Amino acid sequence: MYPRAVIVGRLEALRLHDDHLHAMALGSVVLCIGLWIRAKTVDQDERGNAERRAIFVGLWAPTLWQIGDALDLRRRRRFF
């Protein structure tokens, strides 16, 4: 397992900012809701798979948000 500083440093090297990851987290919530609404329009055989896909995408949001918070924390510590 990599230390947090290494992972956050690599993300900074890719020029990812906390705002980017927070926006992706919100986007994944919107995508999850869209997939869930679409799951209601498919037939019964495919509905379970479509709902599982929506739940899977919905799980991205907290992960992306926490990574964004880690980048934000590192940026704040650097300036203070």
Structure, explained:
- By secondary structure, the protein is an all-alpha fold.
- It has one domain.
- It is built from 4 helices and no strands.
- Helix 2 packs antiparallel against helix 4 (60-79).
- The chain is elongated and about 55 Å long.
- The relative contact order is 0.18.
- The mean pLDDT is 89.
Provide the succession of SSEs: HHHH
Summed up, the helix count is 4
Radius of gyration: 17 Å
Mean residue pLDDT: 89
Fraction in helix = over 70%
What shape does the CA trace take? Answer: elongated
* Broad structural category: mainly alpha
- Estimate nothing, just give the exact number of structural domains: 1
Task: Summarize the main sheet.
Answer: none
Q: Count the E strands.
A: 0
Contiguous runs where pLDDT drops below 50 for at least 5 residues: none
- The share of residues in extended strands comes to under 5%
Distance between the termini: 28 Å
Would you summarize the structure shown here?
The protein has about 80 residues and is mostly helical. The chain has helices at about 5-15, 20-40, 45-60, 60-80.
Outline the fold blueprint.
Blueprint (H helix, E strand, L loop, with lengths): L3 H10 L4 H22 L4 H15 L1 H20 L1
Defining traits:
80 residues; mainly alpha
